[in-house]
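Give me structure tokens for this 201-residue protein.
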Amino acid sequence: MVPCDGHVIGSVGCGFGNLEGVLVTAGREVHGVDISEEAIKVARTRLTTARVVSPEERMPFPKGSLDGLILADVIEHMPMAWEYLESFAQMLKPGGWVLISVPNMRNIEVLMRLVFYGDWPEHSMGIFDRTHIQFMTHRRLKRWAAQAGLSLDHWVAYYHYLFLRRNIYRVVDRITFGIFKSFLTFIIQGVFRLPRVPPSS
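Here you go.
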């Protein structure tokens, strides 16, 4: 899921640094920020650097300092998240990438919950996490990225965390030639890039 290119990587909302720690072990330089002091204490043992930032911080790393940026399950928690994404994109070098992961609110299970139960539960985690404030779809994320000057490199399909459902949705997706992919994926995961040459002013 993480692009192979890029040595200096930032992670906004790094949490305990599980994914980022794997990248450091593989020889990359990863710098993480998070609003949780408890998470950062653990992340400091796994990442190149890790520090606490305020929820309002829109530029946690210097402009043009990163080869890549990880935003894993982060922007759905941010008010006016599209504005944050525009700021985050400025932290990348030309040609740099952003890996974004958000819950898919167009997922078939979400739609069934609304249609058959007429309810939106408040769970402690997952797609109905009570701290989510953004309603995310593939098209909305792609639009936000374009506004930030990023173009889609590729989507990474994540069908479900349960083995049986994951494989059922994967099979359905294949036999329907991907027509219903946006309904079958549980999480939206995409890699977006800045142009390799900055646009002329």
